[in-house]
């Protein structure tokens, strides 16, 4: 029993941190620019592919730096030559633009690397067990992932709440005219934010690429859960995204370990269902079977009870 | 306004002229291939499509069926039953007389019903349904019909093959079942319960897990559960990403169990488990590269034509399917679907791996099955991994037969 609890906590926390890695850049872009970037998961995928390609040429550690930088450049280009022109047309235009971009990146990835999953294995230099617990080894790359994710959180928190640039960027969101009147180049600030957000997605992609599966569908597979994280956490709140990621990771992982259903609970309470009841089949679904649905359930509940999310400042 | 009408009339005439010129192409026997060609399951659909192209070209090069050339029409169904029904309609409208599909039993169940309805309503325009991979037993039992033919062994036949191996291996005591939460996964779990109870009643089933289909990114929590249960053997029908990611999580946690898999040899899975799978990863298939001491001519030619690393000739059964089609056309001396279907019933054919037979009572192909284990000492490896499969046990076609509840009406 204790074993299951320990592993669920550990696995849940690691999964949560992975989710945070993915959603931090998205939250950053939303909080600073008010753009809901549907292409974020695609940049994450691009990061995974680029890092795989680059690490074949110059090794894993340089790729860990170069791939996110390239993704940052891609992000800067997207903002500078695409989104910047769309901003003044309003949010619908922005969303449509990023939505279309997600498809374009997806097709480009298929053209460059094919439809099948590529063999993105854990690099040999970090492919060893960090520690053993209850006879189960724990891979080092997950430890590395944890460190990077926590590092991202610290960086974002400090950079945007405690530095001058961060304050200027925040001011530019609500009062762009005033900020530019004070002599700041607002469009350039936006390019910077978008580049950092994309670089974070790329960095998540480097680790996520071999932690998960590098294939053209990975963006589509991870897109929805990332949106759950930022809505539950509160749109635009970085601490909120962190808490929501951990919550979703741990709750979902614990749910997998629970082999009981609502029907079992009712039986324990002495409320057996009549045989042949229509509800019977639905209530007999084990919690572990429904585990991956829980984040979405949480999303719906959150939107009903508290539309602004855990730490959000405005209603979604 | 009048000008507009003129213009429409003009283009309409031109279109009619083009359509009238088309029958030259209508002389082919059209085969509609309905499977995922985009999205998450596309790798399987595209790989099978290459098999289709390959065998159709071979038949055409030899003069076609009764002098008629075959033509492949491909439709992307995104493994979605509703989408598949639209694609089936499109295929029929474009003249397909045989449809082929494999990925997803839910899709196959939808298609077999739709084909049955179409054929009842359109006598003289019947369509056959060749299923090369959807293996829910229902398709040849309670849901069987005259138009559906299955060229892959069903869940029960494959589990029975595993049952024989497990019965002989006295080191297996605790079995964990992990499957996808839909008709196929449930059929695998049910077959495992039934067959283990019959062949090894002393074996304990310590877990029976159903997880959502192709939705899990990280299988670590499931692997933790398998470890905690003390299982020495895992039986799974998982395919595609669900198989790869389960292997990956197992490898990360250092899980050492016997894997009895339906699709553990599928694209990407062997590289995912790597050397950890040597001696542990087992699969049941109609073919693998080391099934004979040499490669078969079809394999050599296939690998010559498709040279990408992921272009494995995984579906020997597609070869068998076209061989049966060719033989049926010869026997019927016609390419009419109804005559082809009658000719296929009970048709027997020799293959390099042993005789095969299309059962007349439920339209299930009986072909030799092989239980094999991953090994690092084989002549031919999978996806350049240095690892390949080695046969543990061959089950001859006749021994794979299962009782059926199928009652079909024949035209």
Helix-strand blueprint:
The complex is a heterodimer of chains A (316) and B (411).
Chain A: H1 2-33, H2 40-58, H3 60-86, H4 91-113, E1 129-133, E2 136-139, H5 140-162, H6 164-174, H7 176-181, H8 186-211, H9 218-233, H10 238-257, H11 262-268, H12 278-283, H13 287-290, H14 294-305
Antiparallel strand pairs in A: 1-2
Chain B: H1 2-21, H2 23-26, E1 29-35, H3 42-61, E2 70-76, H4 81-93, E3 96-101, H5 105-121, E4 128-131, E5 148-150, H6 155-168, E6 174-180, H7 183-199, E7 204-211, H8 220-229, E8 233-236, H9 241-252, E9 258-261, H10 269-273, E10 281-285, H11 297-305, H12 316-332, H13 337-344, E11 348-351, E12 354-358, E13 365-366, E14 369-375, E15 388-395
Parallel strand pairs in B: 1-2, 1-3, 3-4, 4-5, 6-7, 6-8, 8-9, 9-10
Antiparallel strand pairs in B: 10-14, 11-12, 12-13, 14-15
Main features:
heterodimer, A: 316 residues, mainly alpha, ABC transporter involved in vitamin B12 uptake, BtuC, two-stranded antiparallel ribbon, 14 helices, 3% strand, globular, B: 411 residues, alpha/beta, Rossmann fold, 2 domains, 7-stranded mixed sheet, 5-stranded parallel sheet, 13 helices, 15 strands, 40% helix, 20% strand
Could you explain how this protein is built, in words?
The complex is a heterodimer of chains A (316) and B (411). By secondary structure, chain A is mostly helical. Chain A has a single domain (2-305), classed as ABC transporter involved in vitamin B12 uptake, BtuC (Orthogonal Bundle), CATH 1.10.3470. Chain A contains 14 helices and 2 strands. Chain A has helices at 2-33, 40-58, 60-86, 91-113, 140-162, 164-174, 176-181, 186-211, 218-233, 238-257, 262-268, 278-283, 287-290, 294-305, and strands at residues 129-133, 136-139. In chain A, strand 1 (129-133) and strand 2 (136-139) form a beta hairpin. Chain A is globular, with a radius of gyration of 21 Å. Chain B is of the alpha/beta class and 411 residues long. Chain B folds into 2 domains: 2-153 and 301-366, 3-Layer(aba) Sandwich (Rossmann fold); 156-285 and 368-400, 3-Layer(aba) Sandwich (Rossmann fold). Chain B has 13 helices and 15 strands. In chain B, the strands form 3 sheets. Chain B has a 7-stranded mixed sheet, covered by helices on one side. In chain B, strands 2-1-3-4-5 form a 5-stranded parallel sheet, with helices on both faces. Chain B has a 3-stranded antiparallel sheet with strand order 11-12-13, with helices on one face. The radius of gyration of chain B is 23 Å and the shape is globular. Chain A binds chain B through residues 3-4, 7-8, 11-12, 14-15, 18, 114-117, 119, 121, 129, 135-139, 142, 211-213, 215, 217, 220-222, 225, 252-253, 256-257, 286, 288-289, 291-293, and chain B through 39-40, 42-43, 46, 181, 209-212, 215-218, 220-222, 224-225, 227-228, 241, 244-245, 248, 252-254, 267-268, 271, 308, 310.
